[in-house]
Amino acid sequence: MARRHSAVRRGQRGAKLHPWGQAPQIGRAAGDRVDIAFARLAVHGRGEQPRRIGMRRRLQHVDFWRASPEGRMFLLRGYFEDKGSWSGRSIEPGTMIDIHAPVWRVAECLQHAHRLGSLFAPDQELQVLFRARWYGLRGRRLSSIDEWTAFTMRDDRFARGDQFEVQETLPMRQIADNLPEIILSLLKPLYEQFHFFRLTMDHVRQALGN
C-alpha cells in the first residue's frame, strides 16, 4: 500500500500537463485513497458536494483530485473560461467553452493514467477505463478565449444539451502511441453538441501543440 501511495505521488509529478495545467499538490494519504486539493477545496463524506474553505481563487481555477492505490483516479474541475475576462475581453461566466479546452482536459487525464499505469505495473499491459462528464453545457457557445480564433468561428454554435458523458476502455500502450486519435474518437460526439460542429484531427493536433 505504501509503495502504491508513493507511485501516485511520483505519477502526479511526472505527468506532462497542458499549458493551463498545474501540478497537483498532495493533500494527504488516508486509508485507501490520496486526496489532492487546489485552493483548499474539500469534500466531506461520500456523495457530498465539494465546498470551498477560505478560497481566494475563483471556482474556474479550482481542482479536486482523489487517487486510490488500486489505480482509480477522480478529477473535478471548473470551466476556466468562466474567469470573466480574457485579454481585455469580457466573457460572461457560463456562456462559452473554449474550442481547445476539452482536448486539453482529456489529454491531461489520459497522460496521468499512462504515467501511473507504468509505475504501478511497468511489466504489464494494463487496460485504462476512462470516463468523463461535462455539466452545465446548455447555453454555452463553442468559441475561444483567443480573440483572433474567436473572430474566425461562427457565433451560433450553442450546446443543445446540458450534459455529456463518454466512457471507453483503452490499452495503456495506445495512449502513448495514438493519443490524438483516441481524443478525436472520444470527443467528436461532444463537439457535435454545439450545432453539429465537426471536430477534426487538425483541431486536435493544434490544441495539443498550443
Description:
Residues 14-26, 35-46 and 50-57 have low confidence and may be disordered. Helix 1 (2-14) runs antiparallel to helix 2 (101-120), helix 2 packs across helix 5 and helix 5 (179-192) packs across helix 6. The longest helix is centred in the middle third of the chain and has 20 residues, at 101-120. It contains six helices and twelve strands. With 210 residues, it is of the alpha+beta class. The chain starts with a helix and ends with a helix. The protein is globular and about 50 Å long. Strands 1-2-5-6 form a four-stranded antiparallel β-sheet, covered by helices on one side. Strands 3-4 form a two-stranded antiparallel sheet. The chain has one domain (2-209).
Present the secondary structure layout.
Elements: H1 2-14, E1 26-30, E2 33-37, E3 41-42, E4 51-52, E5 63-67, E6 73-77, E7 85-86, E8 89-90, E9 96-98, H2 101-120, E10 127-134, E11 141-143, H3 147-151, E12 164-171, H4 172-177, H5 179-192, H6 201-209
Parallel strand pairs: 9-11
Antiparallel strand pairs: 1-2, 2-5, 3-4, 5-6, 7-8, 10-12
Sum up the structure in keywords.
single chain; 210 residues; alpha+beta; two-stranded antiparallel ribbon; 32% helix
| Average of pLDDT | 78
Biggest β-sheet: strands ordered side by side in the sheet: 1-2-5-6
The structural domain count equals 1
- Give unreliable regions as ranges: 14-26, 35-46, 50-57
* Relative strand content: 15-25%
Q: Secondary-structure element sequence?
A: HEEEEEEEEEHEEHEHHH
What's the multimeric state?
single chain
Count of strand segments: 12
Cα(first) to Cα(last) distance is: 38 Å
Shape: globular
Largest sheet: 4 strands, antiparallel
CA radius of gyration is 18 Å
Helix content: 25-40%
Question: How many H/I helical runs?
Answer: 6
